[in-house]
């Protein structure tokens, strides 16, 4: 099969900026920075200077007089002036003269504008104790785009006043007097831009591809996120240093809930003055105010952004690619246009997969980037960086914000670094797993969308810190400054954190490791080593939060309330699905307030609904349930919750070369013709068209798929269980048996779909579940129950789904999130039967009455006719009563023969007839050489009507293992005209020691590895691949005097044919391997492949192994309908016989003892054309062996056999072990009932002979009994095969 195409890495390339053609929509203007500060003494008659603003009130409305505590109060006030005519003020301070030195670059406000002293201390104070305000101003060369003071305020802490968010407080008291409250100054800093105009980025300048992708149309709001603070047109002095590009990231959420990640870089490029109006030019300082004369000492720049959109958060890779594209646009000339590089990256770079774990992209001879496959984890993939979270917030604030998120507070993150906002916001959302944030979530919010901060709903919003230059945050918002590691207005849950000290200890440890990691990064040159260490550390931090959430929600599943009756209008409410009061009572009393808030959130309600119904997150929720079970121990900190999956990691690296440069016809290099002054207008004709289009990433299969698949967690758990059970003999067979039943339930949707009586087929599957429970089958997962529940919902049987759930709980299995979701979906969406007793229930009652009367009359009839009754006549079989049920008129006992008894129809009184009116027999068909091709004996055949299945379909299917009792059911001989027999055997030859290995020994030799096809030889311990052999025989016309036993019979429609070679040999797969292959087949080709005629030829290994296991367990299927050979004019009955011994014995070897016995006894059998051998096994020898076995003297029989072989010249030509020879001889002479007794006798004889001959000597002569694991496998897969 060809390798599946990998999904493409990048979906769109976008250029955003200001369209020269307009229209230009202006945004709010920036606030001018503070450029001057003065202190005035109003008590001495000084006035506020022109252009200055006096601060007369504190933040709380009290007097802002600076000298209120002085004896000779001059009534000092602080004034400031805004402007752009000089470099802005950067910082404010207070100088205590004589106690500290003035820092370099700082200025002191010593006098007022009227040359009086501006000291804040008393006028009579000595010089050494004077107090002055100070400030620091930006340098002239740094006057462009530097931080500057934009607002100043005074506050009185004793009056309850605190500094507003984003304000810096100077912790020095301005009131140096003997009385009065303490007075402090605070200020806000923001980017002090040059002359600038800000416009909205509302349209695309360029995009590639131009047409929307079908799976993901390009959103119209992308330009706004590329330039969240708008497009700025700025005038710079000519000597201004060029600004470096700024990298930013953002996240978009589609209508379906999928995340799309964006990465952009913002840069400046020159802009034409002709595009500006006169007013705009004056505003930007390009024209003089008086005479409108052009000012040539300034340049005009505009902000632009290039961006890529992807479904994968490879932010570092995208940053390198965008930086390369930007540098390519400002350098040159180049041989290739920039479009070639963009299209090459988009079309040729795939998402890293297990087949391509490392992708090295060579952008140019000097630029490359490396993509590594993300860590395989059940946690959802996101753009979170937990390292950045701890680096910017620390462990204490990180835990505090987690509780803030869990209680759905309004959360506002801000930073001057836009790329940090997205990484930290994603981490905040991810660390609340499994709860999913469903409220507004904008990690990087554009200025145009800032109104979301006024919304009356919880939100997580990230903004650039320059947002506060224009607006103040709402009072009910928790503000987090990532640049200063401060949180404002947050609730306190310190008591909850105290109950989980593990989280503090681990997070503090990770904070230390983070510092070490940052130091070691400069010492390591191996990128792979750095990448692995960072990913490992990220995973460990995430694991700490996951452990916190697991402890927080421990035991929540016990409070889920399943729907067990017809749903009402409130059935899907959280109060109906979850016992909230019981959950709260189970928590610590000190945490009641927090848990009450948690259970009222939308996240918790959605979490309960997702746990109760089928959702796209079922795999993640199932993983969380496993984590909850792991932490429910005494020391949860010692349990690993997340394990790195290294199974798909590798060193295989795929190299992707840059676009090839063209050459001249003479082989010389082409001239470099492409040079750009600004980022160019992309031309569609210069883009390379994709040669092999990468697949667009799509979501997984719908959760309503007809056969719910196993998740990675279930597969991993099943592998661990199989590995554990493989070392326990009596558990290994039950493990294999559980996987065999799992195979049938995976096939069940196909079987039910082909049946006419679908409801009866579902009840058959329910009986199989009950039978599995009775046999104590070890199920590796919940797929059996889950598939049946899903089918109950698909075919409208909610009552049966409830019974399946009760049966599941009876078996001691608590349904996980996936199974529980399918159950509630089935009972919620299906139509429930009426509670009134309908006609079907009344007919069932009448039927039971009639059957009961018939049962009572039988003893009377026997007594009356006992004298006339033929002694050989078989008694009438007991009929099966139909149990009355208020849920359904169907019988609980309506199942296949191998489980509960005779199959009867529940929709007709005809089923009361005892099916023993006729007896159909088959004659053996002579072969070309006159010998018998087959030997058939009597069996039960279920009675059916012509042309009908269970309820009158085209096909008659008879299935199951039939008992060997006296009762015989019959089929009309007119239905069977031709008979096709399929003989199957799993007996395989070990090439190392030339020994035949039989079915139970092969099973015992399998390993728990679901990718290993080998078994182990019990004699030489060599590994070999066992084979399954199938032989298709045409038995010819069927007459009415030959019995058919121990078989399964199918009646194929007229015109069917039996196909394939006379004998088929395929690998005999372990149920673990077969299940993996079957699931892979269904995942790649769909369920319909199991019902297609091509299934037999295209996937013969899977087909014949399924037939073998289904026949072993007596499970119904439609697989044999696919067996076709040649056209037949009439219907053909296909029967399967499972043989113990090989189908193709080596005739150069001595015949086995049981074959010699049958030859001497004249029993008809298959002709193998045995050659004449001088073997010592005469009839008297066979009778002597059987006599010793019958007298419980097996050790004498073994001694006789070994002595007889020792007398022969040369090596004996025997492929079977001594145990196998005696076992088959016993079966041929005494029957199957003696198998268990023979095992005990032979084991006792082996123990007795070990003392005289020695175990090693017996082993060399292949006289040891089968291992306990092999015996248990035979016992679990009873009854034994035919011999």
UniProtKB/TrEMBL annotation:
Pfam families linked to this entry: dDENN (PF03455), DENN (PF02141), PPR_2 (PF13041), uDENN (PF03456)
Biased composition (Polar residues): 905-914
Annotated stretches, region: Disordered: 694-713, 862-937, 1257-1283
PROSITE patterns reported in the protein's UniProt record: DENN, MABP, PPR
Domain UDENN: 183-620
Source organism, top-level taxon: Eukaryota
Domain MABP: 31-191
Ranges of biased composition (kind: Low complexity): 885-899
Protein keywords: Guanine-nucleotide releasing factor
GO biological process: regulation of Rab protein signal transduction
One function term, GO molecular function aspect: guanyl-nucleotide exchange factor activity
PPR repeat copies, ranges: 781-815
One Gene Ontology cellular component: cytoplasmic vesicle
Record-linked PANTHER family: DENN DOMAIN-CONTAINING PROTEIN 4, DENN DOMAIN-CONTAINING PROTEIN 4B
Official protein name in the record: DENN/MADD domain containing 4B
Taxonomic source organism: Amphiprion ocellaris (Clown anemonefish)
Gene behind this protein: DENND4B
């Amino acid at each position: 099969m060809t390798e599946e195409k990998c999904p493409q890495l990048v979906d769109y390339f976008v250029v955003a900026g200001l369209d020269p053609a307009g229209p230009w929509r202006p945004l709010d203007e920036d606030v001018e920075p503070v450029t001057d500060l003065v202190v005035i003494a109003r008590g001495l008659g000084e006035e506020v200077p022109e252009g200055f603003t006096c601060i007369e009130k504190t933040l709380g409305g009290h007097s802002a007089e600076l000298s209120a505590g002085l004896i000779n109060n001059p009534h000092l006030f602080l004034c400031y002036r805004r402007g752009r005519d000089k470099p802005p003020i950067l910082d404010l301070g207070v100088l205590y003269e004589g106690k500290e030195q003035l820092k370099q670059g700082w200025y002191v406000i010593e006098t007022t504008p009227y040359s009086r002293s501006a000291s804040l201390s008393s006028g009579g104070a000595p010089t050494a104790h004077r107090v002055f305000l100070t400030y620091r101003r930006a340098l002239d060369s740094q006057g462009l785009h530097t931080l500057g003071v934009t607002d100043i305020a005074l506050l009185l802490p004793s009056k309850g006043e605190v500094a507003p968010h984003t304000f810096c407080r100077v912790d020095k008291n301005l009131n140096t007097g003997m009385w009065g409250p303490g007075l402090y100054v605070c200020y806000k800093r923001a980017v002090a831009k040059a002359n600038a105009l800000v416009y909205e980025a509302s349209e695309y300048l360029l995009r590639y591809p131009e047409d929307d992708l079908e799976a993901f149309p390009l959103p119209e709001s992308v330009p706004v996120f590329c330039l969240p603070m708008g497009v700025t047109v700025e005038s710079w002095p000519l000597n201004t240093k060029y600004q470096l590009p700024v990298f930013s990231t953002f996240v978009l959420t589609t209508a379906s809930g999928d995340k799309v990640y964006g990465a952009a870089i913002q840069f400046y490029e020159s802009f034409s003055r002709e595009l500006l109006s006169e007013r705009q030019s004056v505003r930007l300082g390009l024209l003089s105010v008086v005479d409108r004369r052009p000012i040539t000492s300034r340049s005009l720049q505009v902000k632009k952004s290039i961006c890529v959109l992807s479904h994968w958060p490879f932010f570092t890779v995208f940053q390198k690619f965008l930086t390369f594209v930007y540098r390519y646009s400002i350098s040159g000339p180049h041989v290739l246009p920039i479009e070639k590089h963009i299209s090459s990256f988009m079309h040729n770079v795939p998402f890293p997969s297990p087949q391509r774990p490392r992708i090295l992209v060579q952008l140019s001879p000097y630029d490359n980037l490396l993509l590594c496959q993300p860590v395989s984890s059940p946690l959802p993939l996101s753009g979170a960086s937990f390292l950045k979270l701890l680096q910017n917030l620390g462990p204490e604030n990180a835990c505090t914000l987690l509780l803030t998120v869990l209680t759905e507070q309004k959360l506002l993150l801000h930073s001057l670094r836009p790329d940090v906002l997205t990484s930290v916001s994603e981490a905040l959302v991810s660390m609340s797993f499994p709860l999913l944030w469903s409220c507004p979530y904008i990690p990087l919010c554009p200025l145009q969308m800032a109104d979301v901060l006024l919304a009356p709903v919880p939100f997580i919003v990230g903004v650039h810190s320059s947002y506060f230059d224009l607006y103040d945050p709402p009072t009910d918002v928790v503000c987090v400054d990532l640049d200063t590691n401060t949180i404002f207005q947050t609730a306190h849950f310190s008591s909850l954190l105290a109950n989980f000290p593990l989280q503090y200890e681990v997070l503090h440890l990770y904070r230390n490791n983070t510092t070490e990691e940052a130091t070691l990064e400069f010492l390591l040159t191996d990128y792979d080593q750095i990448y692995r260490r960072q990913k490992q550390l990220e995973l460990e931090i995430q694991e700490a939060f996951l452990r916190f959430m697991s402890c927080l929600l421990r035991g929540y599943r016990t409070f889920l309330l399943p729907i067990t009756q017809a749903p009402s209008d409130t059935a899907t409410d959280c109060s109906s699905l979850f016992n909230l009061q019981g959950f709260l009572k189970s928590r610590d009393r000190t945490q009641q307030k927090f848990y009450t808030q948690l259970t009222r959130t939308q996240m918790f309600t959605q979490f309960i609904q997702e746990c109760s119904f089928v959702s796209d997150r079922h795999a993640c929720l199932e993983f969380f349930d496993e984590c909850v079970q792991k932490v429910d121990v005494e020391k949860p900190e010692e349990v690993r919750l997340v394990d790195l999956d290294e199974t798909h990691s590798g060193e295989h690296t795929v190299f992707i070369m840059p676009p090839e440069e063209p050459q001249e016809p003479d082989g010389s290099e082409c001239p470099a013709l492409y040079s750009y002054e600004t980022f160019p207008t992309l031309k569609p004709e210069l883009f390379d068209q994709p040669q092999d289009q990468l697949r667009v990433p799509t979501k997984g299969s719908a959760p309503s798929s007809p056969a719910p698949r196993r998740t990675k967690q279930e597969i991993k758990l099943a592998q661990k269980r199989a590995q554990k059970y493989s070392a326990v003999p009596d558990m290994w067979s039950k493990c294999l048996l559980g996987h065999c039943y799992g195979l049938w339930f995976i096939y069940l949707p196909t079987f039910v779909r082909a049946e006419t009586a679908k409801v009866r087929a579902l009840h058959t599957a329910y009986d199989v579940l009950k039978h599995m429970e009775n046999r104590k089958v070890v199920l590796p997962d919940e797929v059996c129950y889950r598939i049946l529940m899903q089918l109950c919902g698909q075919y409208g049987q909610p009552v049966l789904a409830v019974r399946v759930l009760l049966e599941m709980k009876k078996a001691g299995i608590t349904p996980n999130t996936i199974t529980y979701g399918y159950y509630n979906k089935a009972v919620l969406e299906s139509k429930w039967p009426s509670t009134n007793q309908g006609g079907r229930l009344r007919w069932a009652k009448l039927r039971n009455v009639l059957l009961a009367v018939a049962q009572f009359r039988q003893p009377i009839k026997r007594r009356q006719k006992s004298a006339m009754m033929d002694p050989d006549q078989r008694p009438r079989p007991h009929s099966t009563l139909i149990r009355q049920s208020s849920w359904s008129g169907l019988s609980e006992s309506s199942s296949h023969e191998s489980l509960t008894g005779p199959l009867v129809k529940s929709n007709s009184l005809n089923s009361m007839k005892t099916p023993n009116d006729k007896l159909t027999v088959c004659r053996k068909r002579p072969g070309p050489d006159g010998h018998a091709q087959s030997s058939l004996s009597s069996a039960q055949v279920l009675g059916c009507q012509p042309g009908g299945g269970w309820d009158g379909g085209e096909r008659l299917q008879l299935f199951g293992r039939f008992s060997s009792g006296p009762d015989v059911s019959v089929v009309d001989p007119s239905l069977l005209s031709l008979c096709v027999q399929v003989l199957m055997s799993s007996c395989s030859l070990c090439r190392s020691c030339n020994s035949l290995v039989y079915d139970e020994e092969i099973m015992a030799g399998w390993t728990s590895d679901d990718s290993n096809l080998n078994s182990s030889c019990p004699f030489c311990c060599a590994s070999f691949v066992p084979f399954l052999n199938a032989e298709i025989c045409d038995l010819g016309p069927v007459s009415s005097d030959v019995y058919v036993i121990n078989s399964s019979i199918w009646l194929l429609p007229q015109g069917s044919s039996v196909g394939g070679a006379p004998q088929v040999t395929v690998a005999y797969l372990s149920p673990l391997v077969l299940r993996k292959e079957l699931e892979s087949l269904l995942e790649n080709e769909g369920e319909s492949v199991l019902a297609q005629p091509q299934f037999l030829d295209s996937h013969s290994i899977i087909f014949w192994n399924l037939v073998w296991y289904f026949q072993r367990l007596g499970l119904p299927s439609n697989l044999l309908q696919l067996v076709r050979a040649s056209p037949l004019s009439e219907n053909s009955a296909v029967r399967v016989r499972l043989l113990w011994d090989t189908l193709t014995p080596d005739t150069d070897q001595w015949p086995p003892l049981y074959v010699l016995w049958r030859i001497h006894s004249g029993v008809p059998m298959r002709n193998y054309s045995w050659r004449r051998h001088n073997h010592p096994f005469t009839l008297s020898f066979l009778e002597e062996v059987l006599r010793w076995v019958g007298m419980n003297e097996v050790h004498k029989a073994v001694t006789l056999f070994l002595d007889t072989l020792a007398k022969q010249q040369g090596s004996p030509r025997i492929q079977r072990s001594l145990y196998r020879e005696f076992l088959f001889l016993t079966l041929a002479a005494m029957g199957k009932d003696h198998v268990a007794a023979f095992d005990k006798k032979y084991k006792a004889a082996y123990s007795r002979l070990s003392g005289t001959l020695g175990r090693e000597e017996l082993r060399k002569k292949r006289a040891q009994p089968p291992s306990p694991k092999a015996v248990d496998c035979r016992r679990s897969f009873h009854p034994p095969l035919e011999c």
